[in-house]
Structure prediction request, 597 residues.
Amino acid sequence: MAKPRDNRAWLLVLPVVALVAFSALIPVMTVVNYSVQDTFGNNQFFWNGTGWFKELLDPSTDLGGRFLDALWRTLLFSALCLLIEIPLGIAVALVLPRRGWGVAAALVVLALPLLIPWNVVGTIWQVFARRDIGLLGAAVNGLGIDFNYAQVPLHAWITVVAMDVWHWTSLVVLLCYAGLRAIPDAYYQAAKVDGAGAWAVFRAIQLPKMQRVLTIAVLLRFMDSFMIYTEPFVVTGGGPGNATTFLSIDLVKIALGQFDLGKAAAVSIVYNLIILTVCWVFFATTTRGQGEAGR
Amino acid sequence: MSGAQPRVAAPVGRKDAAPVPAVLPGTRRSARPEMLRAIGPRLLLALYIVFLLVPIYWLVNMSLKTNAEIASGMTLWPERPTLENYRRIFTDASWYSGYINSLKYVLLNTAISLLVALPAAYAFSRYRFLGDKHLFFWLLSNRMAPAAVFALPVFQLYSAVGLFDTPWAVALAHCVFNIPLAVWILEGFMSGVPREIDETAAIDGWSFPAFFVRIFLPMVAGGVGVAAFFCFMFSWVELLLARTLTTVDAKPIVATMTRTVSAAGMDWGLLAAAGVLTIIPGAIVIWFVRNHIARGFALGRV
Prediction:
């Protein structure tokens, strides 16, 4: 059934547009404005045209090289998070009980990490992975591995990725669980009649039925891991060296640390455009031919 | 209908679990040992839950120790449990006011977001209008903007309009990602309500506002609860904007933690206690929405 066309509906969305425009559009325009200017402090600005963007997109320059390095680190981080969290999330959702007293309890425990402030998540893992006072760090060192996330880049990466898996896999679990619960029992009965095994049931029934929620899960997890700032900043501060300096950490360093407004604004815009493009392409390809699907 | 789903779930906590056949006849993969079949899923779930809880336990454990005990070596539980760290937080205004400030802007943000998102979500779910799809994507695109991008301009904006260091500044800034999310969730739940209801009500002579509040809202109450939960959640966990937009009067607890602690040398016990206290509001909120939580996380779209 098609929705009726009525432009008066704009009146209903007007408050949202006004508020979001105030909180988002004005800052975005400010960023665009800075991105074409240079400053020597004292609030004096000079027109710089597309200078920052040229420098940014040229890896041989200081800014460009730095941006590219941070971009690769962020992409690698997002890829690792998705590769671990999506399969693990599906697996845990499949083994969650579907009824009984255990359901509510399991769901509450699962959702717990999602409700912890991000810097507290960082604090938890910062402490947990420390070799002197942390259970994980001490246990790994007890096994004879010299684990020290403050000095070894690989260990820092393991800590940060483990933290993200701890923090966000539950989101994937809850999404998939909701998708699984929506499958009518009749589907399973039919599969049973056909003598389908667990793998066949998964491939033919559960996975297709989860497609919609999985799209949301992948989108949310990509966006949020690509934008991650607080948690790794608390744990490693971007170190050791620049090993875990992701794009947003670098951006805050440039903007609030060095007060290089023009550079920071140019980085912001390119950064934001990358997220938008990736999400748009993913969204368009997964929902193609499904009409209203993702909406 | 119990026992009708052949092998999806580990029947944890089910008293009637026995009749489910572990291996279906004619299954290709019947070579796997039956023991593994039965225990495997439960083991995975148990391991995952332990993985989730151990870091939290460690934080609670540390919050009950004195700094001397933390520094003196590893103990799996506090040898001399003390509530001293919590006492300091509840008696020191610079600490406990942080919690009050956080709750202020979180509640404010939740109220604002819901108030404006409800009519908008209704419009998106019921009508087509000029530029609706573009508008929807533009709204969602704000959810994709890194807070780091906004930090500086938002600071300048709220300084310019005189809201800097008030709960309003943080509440409005968090609207950037909470309103789109609330619209998205509510639109999903509202689209689940058949449009015939609206039409019947109109024929029966209900005015739109009366219909919306008295009939429609109760029907999407679950969605409103879920949307409120998400607004609360994302406003509560965010740090970067909250810290950028406040200095003294409205400083949230998450910022208090990053500043005070590093200035005083590492006071691990106090830090852990403050962390534990930030987990509690979230836990309470989850408990209220536990029955809607799975559908809520799917944004009403299953």
